[in-house]
Amino acid sequence: MEVSVLVGSQWGDEGKGKIVDILSNRYDIVARYQGGANAGHTIEIDNNKFVLHLIPSGILRDNVICVIGNGVVIDPQALLDEIALLESFNINIKGRLFISQNAHLIMPYHKLLDSISESGSNKIGTTGRGIGPCYIDKYARKGIKVIDLLNKSVLEEKIKLNLEEKNVLLRKIYNQKELNIEEITKDYIEFEKKISQYITDTPSYLNNAIEEGKSILLEGAQGALLDVDHGTYPYVTSSSPTSGGACTGTGIPPTKISSVIGIVKAYTTRVGLGPFPTELEGEAGEKLRKTGAEFGATTGRPRRCGWYDAFLMNYSRMINGIQRVAITKLDVLSYLDEIKVCTGYELDGKRLKSFPTDVERLNKIIPVYETLPGWKSDISKVRYYEDLPVNAKDYLSFISEKSGFEISIISVGPKREQTIEL
Ligand code: IMP
Q1: Per-residue DSSP letters for 103-162?
Q2: Which of 117, 146, 366, 385 has the CA that lies 20 to 30 A from 328?
Q3: Distance in Å, CA 52 to ligand 1 centroid
């Protein structure tokens, strides 16, 4: 009985989709524990490319059950679009997808409020999917949960109460048109008809599965440095992508977790605003972005690109309890003559002992780099560690030693088969 948590270790977009797909044939169940349709997990199989936003990537393996946990915020339309996409590829969902009755629903006003707040001076570069406003309502105890879809009068009452308040905000503060209660209620009643078959008590389902000896992979979205508590606040998402979030986001207790796996990109990227100490500006950043096809899977926005940051990764390893990692996109670095790795931060001439999460210090730190020779050859067809060029092996050993983790998977391309397992 293995219960593993899989976390994005940097600022998201580490390649979780592909790695969950690779790992999921070793697990009976894959469960998502936080975030919503702000995530974009890309998997390429044969000549098909899937971008999943809500449903765990394990759905692409016939024998794997997928769970959307209570920590996730669900946009019902995005969910239905995703189900339709999978069905168009003849992927059977029925009996293989369970949705927590306690997950919160993204409502039209959440998306509207997200875009309004992003048009002001407090912009942080969100995905505009209504994630922040939905979590605000959850913690303000005003949210509408999946279970509310099952009781029409409760649903109507909650939409009414919410809209009475949101419409005042929209009209008086933001000078926007009010939203129509009847229309929204009608849409959500329609959603209920289509998704009620998937709704269940997922904490009981998952804990019973553990009792029966089933293995579970808990899939995080985004990345540790976007965590609302441990990330580069306020430039973060509104949930807990770190491994701790896996327990609250699924109802599986910490005593049942057996391992934590980190997904680590061989360099660093960030989408949206916020500090990024090892960012490459100008042509060098552009070249890395183009080579790595670093454009958001959800919004299409260009991702900011930079060198691997071992100092940041040590922090991430510590807060997540990462034991082993999957390194992704190693092949992307093949064009470089030399590769830099950040091994520490200096602030006011002093070497920092711990990672500063406050924006004020992070914006002032000077990264300390060590430079390694590149390998300058195509590694996308390599399938065994021994066949990697010596400089690629040295790069992996160096980042693994400086970050304090063991590497168990190396990804050298987007396809399932472009994977080296150690
Ligand atoms: P939100 O999650 O849409 O509220 O956006 C908050 C921050 O998290 C922004 O900087 C987004 O770009 C970032 N973000 C959200 N989801 C992802 C993701 O899946 N990958 C990378 N960044 C993300």
Answers
A1: SEEP-HHHHHHHHHHHTSTT-----SSSHHHHHHHHHTT---BGGGGG-HHHHHHHHHHH
A2: 366
A3: 15
Query: Is-contact 320 7, C-beta < 8 A?
Result: yes
Task: Spell out the domains of the chain, with CATH numbers in brackets.
Answer: 3-100+200-261 (3.40.440.10), 104-194 (1.10.300.10), 265-421 (3.90.170.10)
pLDDT one-digit tens code per residue, 242-299? 999 999 999 999 999 999 999 999 999 999 999 999 999 999 999 999 999 999 888 8
Q: Which of 41, 104, 110, 230 is catalytic?
A: 41
The answer to whether 309 is a known catalytic residue is: no
Catalytic site includes residue 394: no
**Total-model pTM:** 0.96
* pLDDT level of residue 310 (50, 70, 90 thresholds): very high
In terms of DSSP bridges, do strands 338-347 and 268-270 run parallel, antiparallel, or are they unpaired?
A: unpaired
Kindly tell me the burial class for residue 204, based on how many C-beta atoms sit within 10 Å of its own C-beta (0-12, 13-18, 19 or more).
exposed
For the record, the structure tokens of 417 come out as 């088969």
